[in-house]
Amino acid sequence: MSRPITNWNDQHRERLTRGDRAADILRNGMGSWAFVGGFVAFMLVWALTNLTGIRWDPYPFILLNLFLSMLAGLQGAILLIAARRQDGVAAALAQHDYETNAAAKIEIETLMAINREQLKMLAEIRTSAVLTAATGEVDAHGDPR
Hints:
Blueprint: H1 8-14, H2 18-30, H3 33-52, H4 62-135
């Protein structure tokens, strides 16, 4: 009547490909305040270096704009990959929830059937007890005649 308890999350994690894991790591990294702070610091260092020191990318910062455009393109692709994978996770989790609910329903229905049977047995015992009390007649086993 009982099913083995399994951790769905562990099972799912074992089936991830290297690309799925990389997309998750990059998504989590790019979506952090550490990344934002580091990226702002990088752009400030780039701008200050090109304004005051070595000028490999003068003021309109064309090279920096090129790098930012490439980064945005890669980030978009990585985020789409991670989002698509997350949709798959949500669908698998919904299926797991459905299967768990279906199994629980069967177990509850079984328990309810047992409960109904027990209620019938109790009613028979009460009837037997009432008959015994009313007639006072019992056989050698204590059952009413």
